[in-house]
Amino acid sequence: MKNKPNKLKYSNKYKYKLWIIISAAVLIAFAGSLAIIKNRSWFEHTAKAIKINKSGNETFAPQFTVKSINYPDKILSLKKFRGHVILINFFATWCPPCRAEMPGIEKFYKAHKNEGLRVIGLSVNNSGPEAVRNFFKHFDGGHITYPIGMANYGIEKAYGKISEIPQSFIIDKQGDIVAHFTGELPPGFLSYYFKKYNK
Asked: Which residues form the Thioredoxin domain (predicted)?
């Protein structure tokens, strides 16, 4: 009879520890599910509505034509790239996240350009093309191989008044904006959308 209190004491300790373990497991599982949902929301995030016609419901990419900075004889036009998956990336030379993501964009472009990927970089610099050319010196080989042009006010306004950079838009083969991301592109973003729409 004297040992019963001790047994009860140990039993309560065991139950308490078991409760802590189960609670921790539930919390970890819940946190994991939130992470999965958050990650999925990145990749399934549809484009913001860009009002370009009277209905205001279309996500058709606003057209533009600009001269390339790194390919002086080349004119950049969405119409010329119709039928391809296109990445439009708005950046500035003074923007650290822009500089951080560009090598990744360059690498992905080189790996998939023969599969139909097209990339257009659009600088929002007020200092002009020369500042962008000097900016290229920070990268391997002193240049970026995907074409880059200067964004003007009309282009920025058409794409939602580019007030934050970097901003990236994915355009499908039909010319519709299918994804829009503000900030440095997360790992897997380009791969996910290129595979999804390059069919």
From this structure: 55-199
Q: What is the pLDDT of residue 14?
A: 58
> How far is Cα 38 from Cα 35, in angstroms, rounded to an integer?
5
Summarize pLDDT for 156-184 with one digit per residue, the tens: 999 998 989 999 999 999 999 999 999 99
Q: How many alpha carbons fall within 13 Å on the CB side of residue 76?
A: 23
Superfamily of structural domain 65-197? Glutaredoxin (3.40.30.10)
For the four alpha carbons of 142, 148, 153 and 158, in that order, the dihedral sign comes to negative
Annotated domain spans of the chain: 1-44, 65-197
Rounded alpha-carbon distances, angstroms, from residue 144 to 88, 125, 149, 192: 14, 17, 12, 23
